[in-house]
């Protein structure tokens, strides 16, 4: 404290801030609790709480009766039957692994494109323009909606191999 006072007299244009320590310990480890309620308001809040609990129990019971549960054993047996029906298991595993690698590589590519400063905004603009064109071309008029529906049905048949 004496050093701070000596410094303040030597340099009159600078301000010295000395932190003050509390003289008494007013701190407590317990949080502040609100004052206690009277017994009548406590009973009223208990009644409201018990009514809300009853209604939530009723709602829970009603939803439990109407909901259907998934039988995991049935799900696993169904998956096992489908896996046993597959002839080329190595091909399925290869395609699955290839799909995972493709998703991983595409996430790396998107991250690299996103790091280029103007490219993400430009691609957003291109996407917005394409969306506007698609809405105008296929969704705005009834005849073009029918054309889109026939194109989708033809694509479904082509993928399914029924065409």
UniProtKB/TrEMBL annotation:
Compartments reported by the entry = Membrane
Flavoprotein as a keyword of this entry, yes or no, is no
Residue span(s) of domain Cyanobacterial aminoacyl-tRNA synthetase CAAD: 78-161
User: Organism's domain of life?
Assistant: Eukaryota
Main location (coarse class): membrane
Q: What range does the record give for the signal peptide?
A: none
What is the membrane topology noted in the UniProt record heading this document?
Multi-pass membrane protein
Keyword Transmembrane assigned to the entry: answer is yes
- GO CC term, one of those recorded: chloroplast thylakoid membrane
One Pfam annotation, family name?
CAAD
The residues that cross the membrane are 92-116, 122-140
Keywords assigned by UniProt, alphabetized: Membrane, Transmembrane, Transmembrane helix
Which PANTHER family does the record associate with it?
A: PROTEIN CURVATURE THYLAKOID 1A, CHLOROPLASTIC, PTHR33222
Q: What name does this protein carry?
A: Cyanobacterial aminoacyl-tRNA synthetase CAAD domain-containing protein
Origin organism is Carpinus fangiana
